[in-house]
Amino acid sequence: MTIIKITAELQQTEDPEKVKRAISNLFGEITLKIDTKQKNITGDISEINQLRYLKVKIAQERIRTTLYKTLTRWMKEDFLSFGFNRQAAFAGHVSLYLTNEDPMGPIQVQIRGDVEEVISYLCT
Length: 124
Prior knowledge:
There is one protein chain. With about 120 residues, the chain is an alpha+beta fold. It has five helices and five strands, in the order βαββααβαβα. The protein has a single domain (about 5-124), classed as Ribosomal protein L5 (50s Ribosomal Protein L5, Chain: A), CATH 3.30.1440.10. α3 runs antiparallel to α5 (about 115-124).
């Protein structure tokens, strides 16, 4: 079974609804939970077809090949962790987060399980 966890830390100056919108711009209508104690927003994906919205966005952005090469290089057997730039996501674009690129931090994605299947689904 493959589990995909989406997390975005909430900064004090951020509107949680805007962060939720950025996540929804990438993942479509997934259930998101705001945790005011942990100061983050999380969502879980348990079925690969729930990534359909992201798959379409990746195809529209024409980044399938680059994303495939990058994610396969970063994966470690049954685990992969990477981030999306939240400012780009808020604007409706898919862009991998590079260290310290955005002061608000990334929309973090962690995949446990059949990582290769997820990467193949998203990038083909």
